[in-house]
Structure formats: structure tokens, C-alpha cells
Task: structure prediction
Amino acid sequence: MLLRRTAPGVVGRLARGLSGGRPPRDDKFARVTQEDVQYFREALGAGGRLVTDREGLQAFNRDWLGNFEGATSVAVCPTSTQQVSKVLSYCNERCLAVVPQGGNTGLVGGSVPVHDEVVLSTSAMDNIISFDEVSGILNCQSGCILQALDTYLAERGHTMPLDLGAKGSCQIGGNVSTNAGGVRLLRYGSLHGSVLGLEVVLANGEVLDLWQSLRKDNTGYDLKQLFIGAEGTLGIVTGMSLLCPARPTSVQVSFLSCKSFPDVLHIFRLAKQHLGEVLSAVEFLDRESLVTALEHMPGIRNPLPDGTSPFYMLVETSGSSETHDKNKVEEFLAEVMSAGLLVDGALAQDTSQASNMWRVREGVTEALVRRGKVYKYDVSLPLAEMYALVEEMRERLPGDSIRVVGYGHVGDGNLHLNISDARGKERQEVREAIEPFVYEWTRERRGSISAEHGLGLMKAECIRYSKPEAAVRIMGAVKKMLDPKGILNPYKVLPRDVVHEGC
Amino acid sequence: MKILVAVKRVIDYNARIRVKADKTGVDTTGVRMSMNPFCEIAVEESVRLKEKKLAEEVIAVSVGPKQCQDTLRTALAMGADRAVHVQGGESLQPLSVAQVLKQIVNKTEARMVMLGKQAIDDDCNQTGQILAGLLNWPQATFASQVVLSEDRKSASVTREVDGGLQRLRISLPAVVTTDLRLNEPRYTTLPNIMKAKRKAIEQWSMSDLGVDEASAVETLQVQEPPKKAGGVMVKSVAELVAKLRNEAKVI
Result:
């Protein structure tokens, strides 16, 4: 599913700061030759994997949504930091562009080549190095799959500090490089807090050792924060130290329905008050999201007998005492019911029911992909205005095959706005009805045009909607300092006019 | 007609379990407990029969320590009308439980007893069968479908057996044990959870019912199954034959 645009169209879209455009290939970058492939093969040695056949490369070239597809001729899968360093050092010399890739589950086209950039995958770097059960500090390579890490920690009484729908495929290095949020940010905070140390390979192959496992270290500028969320444009994360919380033994999940978005917010406020320290997730989804999930995901059941309420919420608590937490939750639910805020609600009686409730919420994303074409937006907004955007978008777009859905981490002020078109193909009139309206609407309310998905390729020209010019200029300077030739994940994150030219 | 449903509190189906260091049993401290999944299916089926107006009252019963009341509250929230807790020890044997249930059947005049086919902690698969024997009632086990006659005098039960499905017609009163595909239990919704909290749970003891708690079975040791060795890739047919002959000793 190539995103083709004629050159004038691209320039036009890019000039207007819109997504969906595909920048032309920057010819300062060299093209991959047989000698290059041979060098990579030798650099990887016996352990690492090299992919050069067209069919094998498809998985590396194409993103999960099927919106972006590049044309790399080689994917490199090293097994060690030394190999990554060798490969990058060589690419820097040759001026070969490189796309770092983890689980390739990103939603803004940041993890796949735009043109023929070399893909450097961390998939083969999946060693868990050590775990200290007293401090909860985990040391691992960046290619470990999130769910595998959580399973490992579960056996040792701990849990990963983040959780997202893509956990079965996403890798921790990618999570860190994109500062992934997810459903437990409300409880465990962002990766900016949980990451204690990093090992990063810079564009010129230099291995930057920021790999400490200390809870507190105020010695100088905290450089690792630059790489967390840089989406692979400042360096490749190869290893890390993560602070992992104790695994809760008591998890209570409830699924609620209510009449209006103000009621959703009211319930959230009461949840914070009554559930306080054990609250671990507050998610919402509108009726359209629920219907989409029920229609397209097999095995998903509506936890509530009636599916006509306009809003649904999932409230989760995580604690150490079953009786204490259950009582708290039942009191909270009684309070919310007597305040007239609930249409109905269900409380999971065992872990199977709890998983099923989560599957409803987490299933929306995949259900949308199954339904057809998805125009996906991810914004941070002031809570009171969060749903107004969905309603206004619904008015702007024609009915028939189009369905506008809103869901997300209401606890974090993060709305996932999705416009689903059962007709399946990108339509310019639909895209133009959405953009730049959605970005301008967000900017007017001083929100973020990308709460957690990042900028990637999709929003590489959109940063100015949410960041002032001075900040963008400084980011450009940092990029130039750390990657003078601009070989790391080019065309992404920062606008082209900011990124340094010249090889 | 009254239906008696027996429910058991067990370690949650998804919980990770560990054997105690002294190998006397499974460590249950801090482990999540919930209603045995097959018992949940039994409660659901009973409530549905009541909703179809084929039964008037669903009585849930659980035999064991005080925490059984949590499980009974779930049954009430799912739609049971009454809950009976028979105070007893932690690891009761199916025979003792069946003897208790027989007394409860007599006291409540229930004409149908629904149980899960087995508990996921001991996998005994005995209580329903022993109870039917004690009561001298017909039994239909591993039910995947239960159809009650309009006059409530008989039932047609489809059973899941090794060879496929078997259909029985049994006369009531009878004992039925439930299998996985019988139904999908409902979620407990809030108004029902609140109502269930306020209902009183009747308390009886095993001695009240004249049942001896002492067990004829003594557990000697509980241990984890041996860890599975990893799979081995063989490089040739000759190597495969050699391994089958010398290591696996199957040819």
C-alpha cells in the first residue's frame, strides 16, 4: 500500500505542515552496493542475521497499519552492541541512511524506511542481562519484547512499568526511543522516570555509556533523557536499565457505562478520590469504538448487557490486598451509582473476566484496521474539551462508510481520535476535511498534536503546532551535533528546514 | 422447582502457582482466588433456567472456610436467590462434600443439583457422581446442553464424551455436572453486586448436618511436575532413528 503523491502535491502538503506527504529522496545519501552488503555480512559474523531477499524485506519495509512502505534492499539484525557500532560507523563513513527498527509497531511511520535506508533491527538483541529482585532494577538489551519481559518479571514478583496493546510484538528499545505511554502511565509514570540508564550507539558508531543502574544521580546534564522519545534520530538504544515496580497481587477491573462525557470526567475525579493510591488505569471509549471492536474482533464480548450508552469506561486498581481493594472498589462504585453517574457497570469476578474487559478496550485499535482505512490521530487536550474534538469531526465528515471514533487514556488527557472508512483507500477529500483542522483545533487549546505516538514521518512537518520556534531550532542544533551527516532515521520527527544539510 | 448449585472457591485460573517448600501442598498466600470456572457455568445455567421460568429458586451452597462467602456473593450477584455457607476445613474430600450436599438437598427439597464437572485445583471429578449415588438419583455429567421438559419431570442432556456427544434423557430429580461449552457466564453488574452484598448468607456447620469432617485420604506429598527438556533438532534420519532407539527407547 504505497503512499504515492506527485511531487507538487507533496511539496504543497509539506509546505502547509500536513501529514500524508512523502518527501523526495535526499540524494546526499549513498546507495547500498554489494560491497556494503558484504561488509555488513562480515560485521555481523556468525550470530547476526542479514536479510536481502524481497519477500523477507517486506516485513521491514512496511508498517503495521499498512500506511507506509519503504524500499530498503537490506535489513541488518545484529546481536551485540559492538556489531551495531561497527555497522553504524561504516554507514556514517559511507553516508548511508539508517532506520533503527524494533518491533515495527509504531503508528506514525517512524519505524520503516521512506526510501532505501538500511534497516538496522534490534530483534536479535533480546537478552535479559540481569534482574535484582530487591531493587526491582532490570538490565536488558533493547530487542527484548515487552510481553516477554513482563512474563519474566511476573515470575519474580515484579511488573514492567508500562503496558500497551502492542506488547506481544513491541520491543523495549523501541518503547524507550518513542517514550511509549500506554495504559499504566497513570500509575507508573512515563519512561522518562523509569529508565535509569541507557547504552546508546551514536551515528558515528561511538558507544555512549549512560548505562547506570542508580535510582539517583545528579551529576551533570541528564543526557539519557534526550534519547528517550527521540525516535531513533539521535542514536540507537542498545541496552538499558529499568526500574520495575512490584507486581500487584490484587487487580480489580470494572467496566462502566455512562450518559455523557462530563459524567466520564466526574467518574474519573471520584476514582482518584476514592481509589487514590491503588488506581492503575482509567480508560474511556465511546459507543462507536465499542461497536467497532464487537463487530470486528472475534471472541470479544460486551461486559454489559446493554450496548446503547454513549460512553464506556474501564477503571482498574492494582494493589497488594484483595479484600482491601475490593472493598474500596465496591464503595467507589456505590458512590458513583448513587450520584446517578452510571447507567450500568460490571466488576470482573476473576482474571479471565478482567482480561476480557481489557480486550474490549485494547481491541479497538486492531478492529479499526480490520474495518478498513484508518486516519489515526493522537492528541493531548484539556480534559473538559477532549470529546468536543470527536463531535466536531463527526460533523465535518460525511456518514455512509465513515465512522468517527474516540477512545483513550482519559486519565492522562490523551484522546485517540480515529476516522474509520470502510471503503478502505486513502481519500484526499477525507484527509483534507481532517487536516489541518485537527492540528489547528489542538493548537488553539495548547494541546499536543501527538500525545504518545510520536511524530515519525506522518507528523514530521507538524511540530510547530505544538512547540515554539525557539524550541524547534534548539532541537535542530542537538540533531546536528549528535548526527552531523543526518543518517539516523532521516525525513522523520523534525521538519526538513530545521535538519542540517550536507554530507 | 428449586435448584441447588454447589460452588467452590479455588485458586484463580490464571494465577501462577508454586508448591510450598515443605511439599505439603500449593502455596495459597497472597494468591488470587475465585469461583471455580465450571461452578460458574453451573450457576449461569441455573439462573437461566429460572429466567426461562422452569425453576423458581436457585440456592447456592459452598462448603469450606469463611472466605467461601466471597464466592457465594458472586453467585448471588449472578442471580442466585439464596446462599448457604457450610463451615468446614480447607481441603475437604469429594465424599464429605457430597454428604453435606445430600443433607442440604433434603433440607431444601431441591429437585435438581448443578455442579461443575470438576474443580481446577484437585481435578477430582467425583462430587457430582458420589452425590447422585448417595441420593440414588440419575446423573448426567459433562453437560454441554441441558433442556428441561415443560412439566419439569425430565431433562434431555447432551454430554461431551471422548467419542463425541452423547444425549441422555433423565428423569428429575437429578444431578447434572457442567462442562465448558454449556454456556458463557454473565458478568456481574453493579446493581446485582450491591443487592448481593445486602443479602444474608445462611450459616451451617458440618456437625449440624451430621457429617464427619475427617477425611479418609491423607496427602503425602505435592511436587511440581518435572521440567520439560527442550526440543532437540536432529540432522539426519539416521540420528532420529538412533535417538528413538537408544534414548526414547520406543523402537
Notes: The two ends of chain B are 60 Å apart (CA to CA). Chain B has a mean pLDDT of 93. The longest helix of chain B spans residues 37-51. The CA atoms of residues 153 and 172 of chain B lie 5 Å apart.
